Task: structure prediction
Amino acid sequence: MDARDQSAFPRACRQLASDADPRIGKLEERRITPVIPSRKNRRDPRKVSFRLYKNRNIIERFFARLKQFKGIATRYDKLKSTFFAALQLVFAIIGIN
Result:
């Protein structure tokens, strides 16, 4: 069993395109709570924690913003300490903005 199959990732956060019963069924078989909002035209909409969905969106936007910094995305620095220093600087810049 993979570490991801454990309860380390208890929720799956997917886009609206993933609102398909087979995919949701597979997640529930693995005891993963899907945080996928139902489409508007779904006959029986599922209950979704929109607080968790909002948190997923914040994290997704943060990583998208982090990828804008080319040195971080490609990890130009050879030393781990230099890379982490650059990473902390980028976190500070993102936090200020």
